[in-house]
């Protein structure tokens, strides 16, 4: 079985040159914690995630720390978090995406993709030979495919 059989199309395109603000709103409204980002030629750039956004919302001093971070001494105010969020909203998605992402092709064996989902990342972007985004495989798309196949 190949992952091209199971992949879901990506219905909404998010572009690397877009400002992050509308994307953050989109992610909150749709309860999407992870979405692929492409360039103007539809080539995959990386993933933007809630985890990644939270990383950028940490105080700069914490981000510069090495090793295990203990930050219980920090007392963040709502205003400080809001200020960092507003800074993020003005940046481009290309500045914020995780580019270190495992991808698949439509011919990648489904077992490899399921292994990636179970061990490393929640969504596996599926790219064609030109590195263009053609879909994605997630826990949800696998379960949807199984349910549809059983009916």
Q: Order of SSEs, N→C? A: HEEHHHHHEEH
- Uncertain segments of ≥5 residues (pLDDT<50)? none
* Spatial gap, N to C terminus: 19 Å
- Strand arrangement in the largest pleated sheet: 1-2
CATH topology: CBS-domain
Query: Taking all residues together, what is the mean pLDDT?
Result: 87
Question: What would you call the structural class?
Answer: alpha+beta
Give me the oligomer status.
single chain
* CATH architecture identity: Roll
Largest sheet: 2 strands, antiparallel
- The CATH homologous superfamily is called CBS-domain
What number of structural domains do the residues give?
Answer: 1
Question: What's this model, at a glance?
Answer:
With 151 residues, the protein is an alpha+beta fold. Helices cover 40% and strands 15% of the residues.
Plain-language structure description:
This protein has helices spanning 20-30, 50-56, 60-63, 78-89, 93-96, 110-119, 139-150, and strands at residues 34-38, 44-49, 123-127, 133-138. The longest helix is centred in the middle third of the chain and has 12 residues, at 78-89. Strand 3 (123-127) and strand 4 form a beta hairpin. It has a single domain, classed as CBS-domain, CATH 3.10.580. It contains seven helices and four strands, in the order αββαααααββα. 40% of the residues lie in helices and 15% in strands. It is elongated. The protein is an alpha+beta fold and 151 residues long.
